[in-house]
Design brief:
The protein is α+β, with helices and mostly antiparallel strands.
Length: 305
């Protein structure tokens, strides 16, 4: 009787929230799609078998991560036991999904004849959240041991990185005085001993104003693009110096030139020097011809400078 009541409680909640079990299932499917769980289709609110009620381990990991972002749900799934008072009798409900493991955030076990023993849960170790899902295990013990082995493997082979913390400044080479900043935290799990590269994709609006969206950071790991980007926003720090302004103007004159910074400034100074030398030699030539005309009485019609 107790198991039957537990299986029917989700239907009561589904009708209270969605008006009916089918309407609540539609809400589940809509939310799952928004989370990227595109290979799932839910029919029953309690998760019991239905031929059209399907999911994958990857989809369950996405759903688990989103669900355990809720502090209330975290508290519920970490509660060891709860005492109910039924008709004057106390009934103790024990949390069989609770795991005694480092950094445990929460988890849920489950079983049907078709899916076998399953477990979905999350831990945080060294600041890195890790979600693991096991489906179709032969026993509850096997499911829980396997999910803990997956967490241990993840800790040994991955590390957490924050490429650009919120408020940190990323200089913009050809726009002195401006920097790019991220407004939201972005954490990236990287395989240990891997090489991560940050590639900015600039899209500057005209005119440029403080706080404008100016592009994004694309991440590559060992040459492979990560399917995630970090929006970048413009921030005005100060007025550029004269040297910086010269460098910026040279960058605008030669946008395809790969040289930056002092190399650009040196190129501009070289061009100015060439022009000045040309004018000097031209004046000197004119002066020499003028002196020859005065000495020998030769008429010379040259350009007047």
């Amino acid at each position: 009787m107790g198991r039957f009541l537990l299986q029917m409680m989700p239907y009561v909640l589904a009708e209270a929230i969605g008006g009916s079990a089918p309407a609540f299932a539609a809400m589940m499917n809509e939310t799952a799609a928004q989370l990227g769980a595109t290979h799932s289709h839910f029919v029953t609110p309690n998760g019991l078998h239905d031929p059209k009620h399907v999911t994958t381990a990857a989809d369950m990991a996405r759903i688990t991560a989103a669900a355990l972002d809720d502090p209330t749900l975290q508290q519920i799934v970490r509660t060891p036991s709860y005492i109910l008072n039924v008709d004057g009798q106390k009934k103790t409900l024990r949390n069989i999904s609770l795991l005694q493991t480092e950094g445990f955030v929460g988890g849920k076990s489950g079983f049907t004849d078709q899916a076998g023993w399953c477990y979905a849960g999350e831990v945080i170790r060294d600041g890195m959240p890790m979600v693991a899902v096991v489906l179709h295990a032969q026993s509850d013990k096997e499911a829980k041991e396997t999910v803990q082995a997956l967490w241990s493997w993840g800790s040994a082979h991955f590390t957490l990185s924050q490429p650009l913390p919120p408020g940190a400044a990323l200089p913009i080479a050809d726009r002195p005085g401006w920097v790019a900043q991220a407004k939201t935290p972005f954490l990236l799990s990287l395989p240990r001993d891997s090489q991560a590269t940050l590639v900015p994709n600039w899209k500057f609006p005209v005119p440029l104003k403080d706080g404008d969206l100016i592009g994004s950071l694309q991440f590559t790991i060992d040459g492979k693009a990560v399917p995630a980007t970090l929006p970048l926003y413009a921030h005005w720090l100060r007025e550029p110096t004269a040297v910086e302004s010269m460098g910026a103007k040279s960058a605008l004159l030669f946008p395809e030139n790969a040289m930056t910074g002092w190399w650009q400034i040196g190129g501009v100074i070289f061009l100015i020097g060439c022009v000045a030398l040309g004018l000097f030699l031209r004046r000197r030539r004119h002066r020499q011809k003028h002196e020859i005309r005065e000495i020998y009485g030769i008429s010379y019609r040259g350009p007047r400078l």
